[in-house]
Hints:
The chain has eleven helices and five strands. It is elongated and about 70 Å long. By secondary structure, the protein is of the alpha/beta class. Residues 172-179 have low confidence and may be disordered. Strands 1-2-3-5-4 form a five-stranded mixed sheet, sandwiched between helices. Helix 5 (119-130) packs antiparallel against helix 6 (138-155).
Amino acid sequence: MPDIILELDFENMILELQSTPVNEEFSKRGLTYVAVANREKDNDKEMTLIVLSTAEKSKIVKYKFSKDSVFTYHVISLKDLDAEEIINTVEPKIQKGLKIEAKELVLYALIPIIVDTDIEKYIKRVVHNLLQVRNATDSIKNLTYGIEWLIVDKFVEEKEYRQILCDKLGDRMSLIYEYGERKEKNGMKQGMKEIIVSFLNAGTSLNEISQKTGKSIKELEKILNS
């Protein structure tokens, strides 16, 4: 199965994250992904494949799968990008509510795998900031959320925390309470309070947590003050 499929304004996109160079076998698999996804889609937009690579330079791959047919896809290299430069360009714009170019925001979403160290720390930072972006189209925001969802799913080791981040990117937070309740049942001291505080620290308002979980603000405040 593909890593992730996104419907954007003018196209459908399959994103694949590769830590090894693409080869003929990968091209065959990519062609299958595109063919199946194209057959099952419920719109008339073109289906494309983009490979995000930490193993090779950017290039266009043309895979000839029959005498007269060629499957073309793009490989985007992450090896030569400057993470600090991207952060210093994008984060001030997010904080000030300034317009951010689509390419800048996409590169920012890729920061955790560009730096390739302390990946989970950077994932938390990028997720928090992407959710603060206001001056960008829904299509671009959805693309960056999809990229970050893919990175979270691949690199966050703790299963339940990974699911919370994925849900947060998908604007669903119902698992906050399930996760906290399980921690309490397992004898961990912080339990629910720890989860609520972590989301408050990540920029999620108490009102938003209340709306998404179905718990009143009073209930949340009671837990925080316990």
